[in-house]
Amino acid sequence: MSDKPHDYCGIFGIFNDPEAAVHTYYGLHALQHRGQESAGIVTSWFDPEKSIPVMPQHKGFGLVLNVFENQKVFTEKLHGTSAIGHNRYSTSGSSVNASNIQPFRVHYKNGNLAIGHNGNLTNAAKLRAMLENRGVIFQSTSDTELILHLISHSTKETQMDQIMDALGQIEGAYCLVLLTDDKLIAVRDPNGFRPLALGRMGSSWVVASETCAFDIIEARYVRDIQPGEVLIIDRETLDSGEPRSLHLQRKPDTGISQCIFEYVYFSRPDSLIFGENTDKVRRKTGKYLAREHPIPQVTSTRTDKMPIVISVPDSSNTAALGYAHENQKQGIACKYEIGLIRNHYVGRTFISPGQASRDVKVRTKFNTVKGVLKDRVVFLVDDSIVRGTTSAHLVQMIRSAEPKEIHFMVASPPILHPCFYGMDFPSPEELIANLYDQDPKKIADVIGVDSLRYLSAEGLVNAVREAHPDGAGYCTACFTGNYPVPVPSRMRKEENEYY
Hints:
Residues 348-355 and 494-499 have low confidence and may be disordered. Strand 3 and strand 4 form a beta hairpin. With 499 residues, the protein is α+β, with helices and mostly antiparallel strands. Helices cover 30% and strands 25% of the residues. Helix 12 (357-365) packs across helix 14 (389-399).
């Protein structure tokens, strides 16, 4: 039911732990917000009966809890001291193809190999055509499979050289975890679009899309994997105490381009992303939103009560706190309140024919605290607005609690452009900011609020910079249209005929 952008997935890997599969399960559970359509785990171990290294796997559609509800999967199937896991969010159509569920694994001349991928390859069409001309038969529609074929068809001799050969051919935004018979390999693209972190748990090494996956298994965050870094963890790492690193070259005239939307919405507030705490950044976005659009002084003709600031839980909670605090700091009377309650146990909801499905879904996910909202001037803070359909139903629900006014405050700029680097947005003509000429008054009328205000693109970048002064560059293409890495015209046309 979400009217938000989607990240494609979350990835996790662990090396040298007797409970590798179980830890991966918990890591994926912590990363569930990054993908809810499917989940999978592949482990690596030496089968004593067959006297060969093998890679058992288990994956399926649904949430992590559902896919791995049978504990025998861990005791009888997913043996081994190394594992990788994957949560997936996919675009419509490919979500019903079981062949697209990751991790993928293959056995080829140099052994076993498995891969989990977060991101989007911008030269996927070109690579697929090249491989098809070589006679390659594809089992899925995922661009991740391309990487496996590039490795297996490489003319290099060693497996590591084959992997580097393949990585040198792919372009775009990606983080990868690869599992071989003796290595865990983590890769981040040269521009650093997506996050990937390294951690330790005793003598075990772990990698994950977000550090919240470390916390659940009591692993210690070590550092971020750097843009363009290929991190190799193997037995040599256990002896030396440090993983080895190789490096991919960034294209000329491009820089570090970390996805700023990770801070706005995707990541959990308790995660370190790109080296900074997400909660801290979101509080700064609320602060800059208040500086650009402070609460106007409320006159007695509107209400005798001070205005209240509420959030759309959960991703905008800390932005709302920052907004309220900065207004108070400026001497503007307001109060942060919990006006909406979120039901965290919403699954697939049955919708009977004739019901307004969007409205019903909103009400299954949220409910109002009527005593908090009645007769108040409400400043509703949300992290972003995409189509606006869910926002409109949410506002309608808040109206039923009889507030005096509702003002919608958005802690990010208007979303105007498609993303080609691993986010799933609606087509540009479906984005509410494009539908109504980026006019806040028109958008406010459609949503049903008394006013609507956005944080500026400059304000968002400044908020991130204040929270993380040592951070590298950020990608703001979905707000500004400034694509830091060139996108093939064919891909733009295929992805969206609007451009």
